[in-house]
C-alpha cells in the first residue's frame, strides 16, 4: 500500500509527534508498505520530503515549529497525488495538517494533544 504521513511540525527538530511519525514510517516500510513522509524542515534528510521552512511559534510556555509558507498546501496535494491513504498527525495545525486533510485522499487523523 502507498501511504502518506503528514506531520505539521519541523521534522528536523526533536519532538514527540515527529518521532512517532518517523518511527511509524519505518514500521510500515518494514511491513512492505511504500511510505512518503511530509513535513516542514530543511529537506536535507532522506527520511522525509519538506513542505516548507519551519518557523517557531511561541505561546503558552511552548515552542511549536511549523510552516506558514502558503505554497505548502499545493506541495502537499502534489506529493500525495499517488498515495492510497493519508495519515495526518495534528490535523488542526496549519498548514501541514490542513494540507493533509485537503489532499483529496482517504484520510486517517491522529490528535496528539
Q: Biggest sheet, open or closed, and with what strands and sense?
A: 5 strands, parallel
Radius of gyration: 13 Å
Give the strand order, joined by hyphens, for the main sheet: 3-2-1-6-7
What is the 3D form? globular
Q: What's the total count of β strands?
A: 7
Count of alpha and pi helical runs: 3
Element order: H for helix, E for strand = EHEEEEHEHE
Helix content: 25-40%
> What fraction strand?
25-35%
Which regions contain 5 or more consecutive residues with pLDDT less than 50? none
Average per-residue pLDDT, rounded, comes to: 94
Report how far apart the termini are: 28 Å
What class, by secondary structure content? alpha/beta
Tell me about this structure:
Helices cover 26% and strands 28% of the residues. The chain has helices at 16-30, 72-79, 96-101; strands spanning 2-6, 34-39, 49-50, 55-59, 62-66, 85-89, 107-110. The strands form two sheets. It has a five-stranded parallel beta sheet with strand order 3-2-1-6-7. Strand 1, helix 1 (16-30) and strand 2 form a beta-alpha-beta unit. It starts with a strand and ends with a strand. The relative contact order is 0.25. The model has no long low-confidence stretch (mean pLDDT 94).
